[in-house]
Amino acid sequence: MSAATRVVVLGGGVGGLEAATALGRRSNISLTLVDRSPVHYWKPSLHEFAAGTMQHDGNCIPFTETAAKFGFSFVQSVPTAVDRATQTVTLENGSTLPYDYLVVALGSRANDFGIPGILEYCRFIDSLNDADTLYSEFRKALQTARAAGQKLSVGIVGGGATGVQLAAELCKAIDEAPGLGASVRKNGLDAVLIETGPRILPAFPEAVSEAASAQLEKLGISVRTSAMVVGADENGFNLKSGEQIPATLRIWAAGVRASDATALFDGLERGRAGQLGVTQTLQTTEDPKIFAIGDCARIDAAPVAPTAQAARQQGQYVGRVLPQVIAGQTPAPFVYNDRGAVVALGDYNGWGMLDANRSFGGGLLSGLFARLIHEGLYRQHQAGIVGLAKTASTTVREHLSPVKPDLGA
């Protein structure tokens, strides 16, 4: 009986876990998943963790449980070296993993673009730890400002879905926190959303951008477009125009670049933002033994946006075709099926996009419909991991007993 093919998956985000769960139960594959976190979470929900409006229980899935269910091994660590000649990955914990095939799903982080002060003075929401830290600082800063009889000034840079949704979610947190409420938000929060481009949500139709801007302004969030940040310090953000926007809490949610760990792959093609170049079968252009998926990969022939939707489809694709590659077959190329996009502004409003020219949402019922679709995409992914019963239980519990953020009122 031939030995099982050794497959190592680096990264347990949406794409990595989709690949691992598909491959783990195959008897001819010995699979190991590596991730720095002990739990899997839905990255598009990080802004909710950061605002304290989503709890860990039921929404953070231990990798050990998933590994036992789907038949793979889990190692909590990060890669520190990759030797393509010997086909081994060295981890931070000192262990070395041999592989026959490697799936790189290391994700992405916000791009500071080398702007002075961003790394030193801003908070990011690239991981669950980042989100938890931001929530702690938001809570502390709000308490400090209220004790001093002052407004809390918050500056968020990045008018994409992450920044826009975070701005609304912070408002929701104050509105729903025991002892606070909408009046405290109106009188105690001074928030600014800063976008370099001419409008927020540039991936959506202009009508959605305008409606979302109006909704944020209605919540008391100042939306600044065509405002280029050239620096940050302990007092706030410096704009190219010479203006400084004061912000006690400074959050950077702009730009996307691949995880720094892609630099470990010497000799492989890498783009300006660190993504590994892959073919239309998601194998790296210089090494067919290595697949790359999600935000850390780029198909030059047909670029795909760095979204959870894309990562999920790519993870599922690798789960299907890697056994074919092992068997010496040539798989059909990956084809991305764009199912549109949804943006939800807390419980206030929401919009969806069917394609570049068709959008829906806004208002009481349509906004609710868009927000339900937004949640449904996550619950669909969750159900594939923990099962329909557990997903339904978590969903019902959260709708019947919504999280009340503890902001120390």
UniProtKB/TrEMBL annotation:
Q: Where is the FAD/NAD(P)-binding domain positioned along the sequence?
A: 6-315
Q: Which residues form a coiled coil?
A: none
Q: Which domain of life is it from?
A: Bacteria
Q: Which UniProt keywords apply?
A: FAD, Flavoprotein, Oxidoreductase
Please tell me whether the keyword Membrane is annotated for this protein.
Answer: no
Named cofactor requirement(s)? FAD
The family assignment reads:
Belongs to the NADH dehydrogenase family.
Protein's recorded name: NADH dehydrogenase
**Organism, per UniProt?**
Gluconobacter frateurii NRIC 0228
